[in-house]
């Protein structure tokens, strides 16, 4: 899909567009509140929220069956259809409740204004999960050519918060999916960033999911794995003395049932010198 070019660049344009979006969302529609057939409504593919908690949807659906849709959704007229600007969660719950129409406010806006609303509303929402939030931040930064510092100031957040959230997108795609469906917490995700290999990262993520390890327990496991093996004082003393006597590097190979002493040499002459040194020591 070609990149849209209708948005201005820079922090001033972002702030100006943010104010314009708030005005559009808060102004009343000329047509007032309407009842729109569910069959005529389409979801917005640019919506930041990709995951909807089934339990929460069921609860909202039950509420809608009993009390109806209290807050209308916002729609944009698209030919004979309507595109959701805000309220997809209410729309999904209303569908589950079996409603055939839903209360809505229809906004007369063009494609550029719709893009701005979708983009800006996505980074201002408080109900997104960390991956959805990260995708929203990254898209605004890319579209407006902002720095993380500029976006942080505009949203009233710290640059570290914005940066750490966006870093979650560097996780293996399978781990991202676990965060997206809330199987992993954001704190677990940040810990997993220390594992660079994708397969190992996913394996550890699944261990956390299956075992239910807390962040504290996972941190302790990571710290144990990072600690080097304790050095055997006697073997280290022997290794150093052998290296000094032979004038070359000596290592112990202790994997498996058979242990080995590895003595390095760099030429035939060096090998002859080491050989003579060993014989003389007898």
UniProtKB/TrEMBL annotation:
> SMART domains this protein is in?
ParB
Q: Which UniProt keywords apply?
A: Chromosome partition, DNA-binding
Q: Which residues form the HTH cro/C1-type domain?
A: 146-164
Which PROSITE patterns has this protein been placed in? HTH_CROC1 (PS50943)
Q: Which domain of life is it from?
A: Bacteria
Q: Which family does it belong to?
A: Belongs to the ParB family.
Q: What is this protein called?
A: ParB/RepB/Spo0J family partition protein
Organism from which the protein derives = Anaerosphaera multitolerans
């Amino acid at each position: 899909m070609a990149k849209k070019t209708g948005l201005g660049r820079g922090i001033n344009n972002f702030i100006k567009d943010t104010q314009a979006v708030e005005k559009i969302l808060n102004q009343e529609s000329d047509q007032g509140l309407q009842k729109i057939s569910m069959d005529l409504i389409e979801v917005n593919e640019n919506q930041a929220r990709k995951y909807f908690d089934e339990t929460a949807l069921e609860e909202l659906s039950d509420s809608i069956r009993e009390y109806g849709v209290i807050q209308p959704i916002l729609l944009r007229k698209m030919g004979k259809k309507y595109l959701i600007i805000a309220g997809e969660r209410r729309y999904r719950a209303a569908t589950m409740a079996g409603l055939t129409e839903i209360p809505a406010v229809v906004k007369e806006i063009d494609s550029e204004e719709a893009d701005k609303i979708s983009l800006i509303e996505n980074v201002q929402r408080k109900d997104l999960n960390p991956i959805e939030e990260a995708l929203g931040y990254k898209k605004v930064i890319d579209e407006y050519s902002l720095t993380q510092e500029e976006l942080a100031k505009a949203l009233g957040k710290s640059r570290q918060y914005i940066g750490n959230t966006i870093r979650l997108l560097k996780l293996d795609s399978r781990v991202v999916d676990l965060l997206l469906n809330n199987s992993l917490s954001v704190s677990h995700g940040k810990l997993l960033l220390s594992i660079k290999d994708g397969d190992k990262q996913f394996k550890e993520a699944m261990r956390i999911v299956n075992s239910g390890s807390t962040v504290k327990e996972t941190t302790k496991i990571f710290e144990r794995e990072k600690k080097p093996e304790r050095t055997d004082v006697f073997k280290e003393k022997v290794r150093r003395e052998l290296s000094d006597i032979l004038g070359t590097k000596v290592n112990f190979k202790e994997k498996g049932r058979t242990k080995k002493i590895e003595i390095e040499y760099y030429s035939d002459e060096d090998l002859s010198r080491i050989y003579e040194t060993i014989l003389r020591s007898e």
